[in-house]
Design goal:
about 475 residues; mainly beta; Tick-borne Encephalitis virus Glycoprotein, domain 1; nine-stranded antiparallel sheet; 1 helix; 37 strands; about 0% helix; disordered N terminus
């Protein structure tokens, strides 16, 4: 059953196709990848800056989650922890994980899950069986729901310290933990308030593209903040990040210099970006492209790459970058270790120098019969030709720019503050958004505000492609 059906009348429940008034905020449930498992997802909803997990069970799809029965997300981490026999790991909010006993010969670890020092559950995890290396903790009677997943733990290995042929201690390595605050889960009902927002509608999930929503009404007005966030390149071979900002459904790159050439291919620290000087993101792709000599690859917006020459014996290729058929730059890209990339820098982009506008990752050059082939596995591109500089008072749709906040450090990358003068109520949310879902609403002209984020950690063996979003109609 769905929670919305349990707590609302027919008049209160709607499909997402319903027209939502432009004086409401719509908080959408979206699928989110666990940090350590790229092909498994969990539902998440951002309520005005706090991430919650709609309760879901072991045998349901993500869109079957109970959108109005929420547990706060405490932890989604791929940080590595090594615990000795009897050692406890504090997970926050009173939750803890203890290594009760470790058996190296049997490749097993006995783990216990507690809350405020009281036993909740335990499991013996066997390392040599892939199916058992992740422990899913499921509990009953969480806001009336059974078989609710409240914690996931991934065990990587068991080992020990041996000195003089004597085992000094055994330990277990844990490299993935996901946890919700199930003991403090809440059941939202129509009319409930969160701050200045009142819940008006609960929308059930239908499929992977429509996972349900909570619709709130805001009776007061205050500015909207669009925050710059660190974003991982989709191509894993670039371990650094670039800044990005989502302006009402469109993803932009705040111009960032590469002033220190010794950092190549890395840029200056992302918080030094010019938050008010923006170029639209054209492409961030890890798609594989195989190109012959003379072949062109259309990148969109009039930009293209052309393979001018391939030297298989020299493990290199000459690649040219064009805009509207006109030469922009070229480079000889080697496929030797640490030489696979090309970062194209341009000057005088809205007055800034050494701005990276294109990144290309070439993984291989080889012969296919008589044809030389270049394998391109990563492309990142901004529309630098149409970059713009925003100023106080500039308007984007019905939003007026009120404040430009420069970045300070990796936790505060800067922001743009807008005010919507056409209606009485606004919203202010720090939020994470997905490119994949950026086309999920077509009401941009009605003032859709959407903010974006990706993970802020370097890629690991457990790849986290974490995307989520809130849509607010104002």
């Amino acid at each position: 059953s769905n929670a919305a059906a349990d707590t609302t009348s027919t008049a209160d429940t709607a499909n997402t196709a319903d027209n939502v008034s432009n004086i409401t905020d719509v908080c959408n449930v979206v699928s989110t990848n666990y940090k350590w498992v790229s092909n498994e997802q969990y539902p998440v909803i951002d309520l005005f800056g706090d991430k919650y997990v709609p309760l879901f069970t072991t045998n349901g799809s993500v869109w079957d989650a109970h959108v109005n029965k929420l547990a706060k997300l405490i932890l989604d981490s791929n940080e590595r922890h090594v615990l000795k026999d009897g050692e406890k790991l504090d997970l926050g909010q009173g939750y803890a994980l203890e290594a009760k006993q470790i058996s190296i010969p049997n490749k097993q670890a006995w783990l216990e899950f507690t809350k405020d020092g009281k036993y909740i559950d335990d499991r013996i995890v066997t390392i040599d069986n892939d199916k058992n290396t992740t422990w899913n903790v499921t509990l009953d009677n969480v806001q009336g729901e059974n078989n609710v997943i409240v914690m996931r733990v991934h065990v990587d290995s068991v080992s020990g310290l041996v000195e003089n042929n004597i085992l000094q201690y055994s330990c277990v390595a844990i490299d993935g933990i996901w946890l919700t605050d199930y003991s403090d889960a809440k059941n939202l009902k129509i009319g409930d308030k969160i701050g200045e927002f009142t819940l008006e509608k609960i929308i059930r999930g239908e499929n992977v593209s429509n996972q349900g929503s909570l619709v709130f009404k805001n009776a007061t007005g205050f500015p909207i903040n669009c925050n710059v966030v660190g974003t991982n390149y989709k191509c894993d071979s670039w371990s650094n990040q670039y800044p990005s900002i989502n302006l009402f459904g469109e993803k932009y790159f705040p111009l960032l210099a590469n002033s220190d050439q010794s950092r190549k291919p890395h840029n200056d620290p992302i918080w030094e970006c010019h938050v008010d000087k923006l170029a639209k993101l054209v492409l961030d792709s890890d798609d594989k492209h195989l190109l012959k000599t003379g072949e062109k690859l259309d990148l969109g917006q009039g930009y293209s790459l052309q393979v001018k020459q391939i030297d298989v014996e020299g493990n290199r290729a000459l690649i040219e970058f064009d805009k509207d058929g006109r030469y922009v730059d070229d480079a000889i890209i080697l496929t030797d270790p640490n030489e696979h990339y090309w970062t194209c820098l341009r000057n005088n982009i809205q007055g800034e120098e050494n701005v990276p506008v294109l990144k290309v990752y070439v993984s291989d050059v080889y012969l296919d019969g008589n044809d030389g082939i270049v394998q391109v596995d990563g492309i990142w591109l901004i529309d630098y030709v149409n970059a713009r500089t925003l100023k106080i008072g500039d308007k984007i749709g019905q939003f007026t720019l009120e404040k430009i906040v420069s970045g300070v450090n990796k936790s505060n990358l800067g922001s743009l503050a807008f005010k919507n003068a056409s209606v009485a109520d606004d919203a202010s949310v720090n939020d994470d958004s997905s490119d994949d879902n950026s086309s999920s609403s077509t009401s941009l002209e009605r003032g859709l505000a959407k903010f974006t984020n990706k993970n802020t950690e370097s890629p690991t063996s457990w790849y986290w492609n974490f995307w989520e979003y809130i849509i607010m109609r104002i």
